[in-house]
Write a structure and sequence with these properties.
Elements: H1 4-13, E1 20-23, E2 37-38, E3 48-49, E4 53-56, E5 70-78, E6 92-96, E7 108-111, E8 116-118, E9 121-124, E10 134-135, E11 146-148, H2 156-164, E12 170-173, E13 177-183, E14 187-188, E15 199-200, H3 203-213, E16 217-224, H4 228-237, E17 243-247, H5 258-265, E18 266-270, E19 275-276, E20 282-286, E21 289-294, H6 298-317, E22 326-331, E23 336-337, E24 342-352, E25 355-360, E26 377-381, E27 387-388, E28 393-398
Parallel strand pairs: 5-6, 13-16, 13-17, 14-15, 17-21, 19-24, 22-25
Antiparallel strand pairs: 1-12, 2-11, 3-10, 4-6, 4-7, 5-9, 8-9, 18-20, 20-21, 22-28, 23-27, 24-25, 24-26, 26-28
The chain binds adenosine monophosphate and magnesium ion (MG).
Length: about 400
């Protein structure tokens, strides 16, 4: 049986970044930069004012003092979006507003609060050093500079940078198409009536949401019965996806057919991982399409999605880092026994005096959905003997930026 790390590596080697496409910035949130991206222009584009005030030549003001104020003739006004037609000559000043281009000849801006205006003249009572309140052209980004390296995920700040530097469209990897298939005779889509013994199906909606958050396109295929033909038909019809995620039907019971159909229509690479929850995890291919067979229990499906399916999606998107960040947190809760399987414990993170702490969210059995809800990390309890005690530092995988955070 493989360890989690071994299983992750085997799965990752089966995936590569998808094709590059060029899309407008408006559509690029959550995509990953596929080619080095260079600034079309320098930033700021031109010298501009950081203040509402008056543009002047710093050199002209070097003798100015309270007792002997300097008078500069105001020759015009420059709102943002306009330029002054003429250069500023010795003894001149121009009304200027934040973001407006500093005129040729001028090299400083004095805040309007520090001056007065009398009869069209600016009264300056102290020297203004050249460069004061001027945002220099190119001080943020040089033209042709690399804005973003390959593999970076595009978030709001990346979009603002790309937009400012004139980049659009942007080269990204196509979104992976992820087929999602639930299996089980007992499953009924939520909202439909339940017969005795049936339960509401929740893995599809969970996985659809998680796949979407991971940056891929989810293709929910509904529920396959615990019937060879139905399952085969549905799996075969899913083969145009970039990866198939099934849930359920991978343990050793009589009705656990996913593995059987994989073997028959493709190949099983492995079907168990030394972890808890989620030991029955199948990986293989159906024709040319990889299939990750997640366990059916909702918590096991969620944890194995995070550990195995999300990295595969991130790899296809071209992300430089495919795994969740790993941090250390102080266990705040009952002792946790080590075992012969790596144990993933749902915890809620909070800070105490600036130190990251982790409180288990409740009953850790794999059918307890309330303890999946509210978890912001999974503590990783390594294989071994004895117990991890409250107060010990334990590695934790941060989910969704460590949210939800603190108490409810
Ligand atoms: P299985 O792996 O098919 O034996 O399923 C393990 C457990 O998870 C059983 O209690 C199933 O009823 C439950 N289960 C399987 N699939 C789902 C699903 N899509 N939604 C909710 N529960 C499920
Ligand atoms: Mg089942």
């Amino acid at each position: 049986m493989f360890s989690v790390a071994e299983a992750q590596q085997r799965i990752l080697t089966a995936f590569s970044p998808l094709e590059v496409e060029h899309i407008p910035l408006e559509d690029a949130l959550g995509r990953v930069v596929a080619e080095d991206t260079m600034a079309q222009d320098q930033l700021p584009l031109f010298d501009n004012s950081a203040m509402d005030g008056y543009a002047l030549r710093g050199h002209d003001t070097q003798e100015a003092m309270r007792e002997r104020p300097l008078r500069l003739r105001i020759i015009g006004e420059i709102p943002a979006g306009r330029v002054l037609d003429d250069a500023l000559k010795e003894g001149g000043a121009a009304r200027i507003f934040t973001g407006a281009a500093v005129p040729d000849g001028a090299d400083a801006v004095i805040e309007q609060e520090l001056v007065s205006v009398v009869d069209g003249y600016l009264i300056v009572e102290a020297p203004v050093a050249p460069g004061t309140n001027v945002r220099r052209a190119g001080e943020d980004v040089a033209k042709g500079e690399r804005l973003l390296p390959v593999g970076v995920e595009i978030g709001p700040a990346e979009l603002a940078l790309l937009a400012s530097a004139g980049v659009s469209p942007i080269a990204v990897r196509r979104r992976p198409r992820v087929a999602i298939l639930a299996t089980g005779d007992e499953l009924v889509p939520p909202g439909e009536p339940l017969a005795p013994g049936q339960i509401r199906e929740s893995n599809s909606i969970y996985l659809t949401a998680a796949v979407t958050r991971a940056g891929a396109t989810a293709i929910p295929l509904g529920v396959a019965r615990d019937d060879e033909d139905d399952l085969r038909d549905k799996l075969v019809s899913a083969q145009d996806a970039d990866v198939i995620l099934s849930s359920g039907g991978v343990s050793v019971g009589d009705y656990d057919l996913v593995k059987q159909i994989l073997g028959e229509q493709g190949a099983v690479d492995f079907w168990r991982v030394r972890m808890r929850p989620g030991k029955p995890l199948a990986f293989g291919r159906l024709g040319d399409t990889s299939l990750i067979g997640l366990p059916g229990n909702p918590v096991s499906a969620a944890v194995t999605f995070e550990l195995f399916a999300r990295p595969a999606i991130r790899r296809m998107l071209g992300a430089a880092s495919v795994f969740r960040p790993r941090v250390e947190a102080i266990l705040d809760g009952p002792d946790i026994a080590r075992s012969d399987r790596e144990h993933y414990v749902r915890v809620r993170l909070y800070a105490q005096e600036g130190v990251l702490c982790a409180r288990p969210t409740g009953d850790q059995r794999s059918h307890i959905i309330t303890s999946l809800r509210g978890a912001s990390a999974y503590l990783v309890i390594a294989i071994g003997e004895g117990v991890v005690r409250s107060g010990e530092r334990v590695p934790a995988l941060l989910l969704n930026d460590g949210l939800p955070w603190g108490d409810e």
